[in-house]
Each structure stands twice: as structure tokens, then as C-alpha cells.
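Q: Given only this backbone (198 positions), what sequence would you predict?
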């Protein structure tokens, strides 16, 4: 069961988790957060939802100073965060760009991105995750502690987002394989335009 106090104890992010909302099973976190964003919610607001033993959903609100055309590259932060949150030494965790993550070849999670324009810039960007609990636990051969995995996902976007935009014309390395990711150093690989070795 998700516990907001337990999640807060694991957060290292200076931005995400200022406000955390937990909704019941079947809630679409990105849609809920979109309504909150349009009502003026603060950057760093998080919405969580869990269906016990089936699915975990999370969405985080950013208000970056981004041109609309830069949002697709910025949105890769969500997939990178998933790699770090669910990866560990015993799993082969691989991005299937732009928005899926497989574990030992099985689709286990996908990232979700929503934005709204304000002229030529983004009013906000929502980065979210949908994690297939059964697929991930089957690959891990063990139950997952969602009060550890949830903050791991929330801590990672803060780190990646603060590196954007990196200097130079080829952000994050220009399409080379992404670095190994995972909370415990799990193996991963894959490419995406603008992402590379660090």
C-alpha cells in the first residue's frame, strides 16, 4: 500500500513532492494533474494512484521555460526516470524509445507526457509513468516496495531536468546509447535523438 509519509522520507528531490495527492484505483493521474495545473497548481505537484498488485501510476508537474518545440526532447526525462526507478543488478532494463521500458524483454512500464501551450512556450509539462506491477514483479521474482519505487521515480526527473538544456547543439549526446540506469545499477541500453553517454 502506498504511504505518502513513507514516500516523503525517501525523497531527495528539491522540487518534486511539495504537494502529493493519492487517488484510488483506476484514476488517470495525468488527467487529474492536468486539471490541477490549469487551476494553478505549483510546480513539483505529484499525483499517485495504485491498483494493488496490478498497476502504479504517477505524474509530476513541471513549469519549465521551454519552447513548445523543445518539449519532445525534455519529455525523455520521464523514460530516463523509469529506467532508474525500476532497474537493478538482476534485471535487464531497456528503453524502447520514446516512451516504453522493457524488463528482460517484457513491456513493464511506459512514460506519459502532456503539455499545454502558452503562446510559443509551454505553460506546463506533465511527466508521468504507468508501471505494470505484475510484469515487473514477475521479472524480479519478488514483490516490489512501491514506497521505494515511487520516490525513486520522482527523484530521477529532478536530476535529469536540472541538466536541461545542456550546452551545445546535441543535447545529452546526440543519439548515442543511453547510459546504464537503475537504482542498483541495472543494465540498460537504447537510443533516442538527443540522448547519449554522460
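A: Predicted residues:
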Amino acid at each position: 500500500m502506498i504511504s505518502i509519509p513513507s514516500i516523503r522520507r525517501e525523497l531527495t528531490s528539491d522540487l518534486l513532492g511539495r504537494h502529493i495527492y493519492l487517488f484510488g484505483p483506476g484514476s488517470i493521474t495525468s488527467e487529474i494533474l492536468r486539471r490541477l495545473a490549469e487551476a494553478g497548481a505549483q510546480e513539483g505537484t505529484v499525483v499517485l494512484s495504485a491498483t494493488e498488485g496490478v498497476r502504479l501510476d504517477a505524474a509530476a508537474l513541471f513549469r519549465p521555460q521551454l519552447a513548445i518545440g523543445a518539449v519532445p526532447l525534455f519529455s525523455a526525462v520521464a523514460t530516463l526516470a523509469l529506467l532508474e526507478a525500476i532497474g537493478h543488478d538482476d534485471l535487464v532494463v531497456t528503453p524502447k524509445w520514446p516512451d516504453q521500458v522493457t524488463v528482460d524483454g517484457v513491456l513493464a512500464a511506459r512514460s506519459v507526457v502532456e503539455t499545454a501551450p502558452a503562446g510559443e512556450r509551454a505553460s506546463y509539462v506533465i511527466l508521468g509513468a504507468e508501471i505494470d506491477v505484475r510484469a515487473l514483479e514477475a521479472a524480479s521474482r519478488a514483490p516490489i516496495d512501491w514506497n521505494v519505487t515511487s520516490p525513486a521515480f520522482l527523484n530521477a526527473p529532478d536530476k535529469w531536468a536540472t541538466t536541461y538544456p545542456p550546452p551545445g547543439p546535441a543535447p545529452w549526446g546526440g543519439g548515442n546509447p543511453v547510459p546504464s540506469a537503475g537504482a542498483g545499477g541495472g543494465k540498460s541500453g537504447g537510443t533516442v535523438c538527443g540522448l547519449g553517454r554522460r
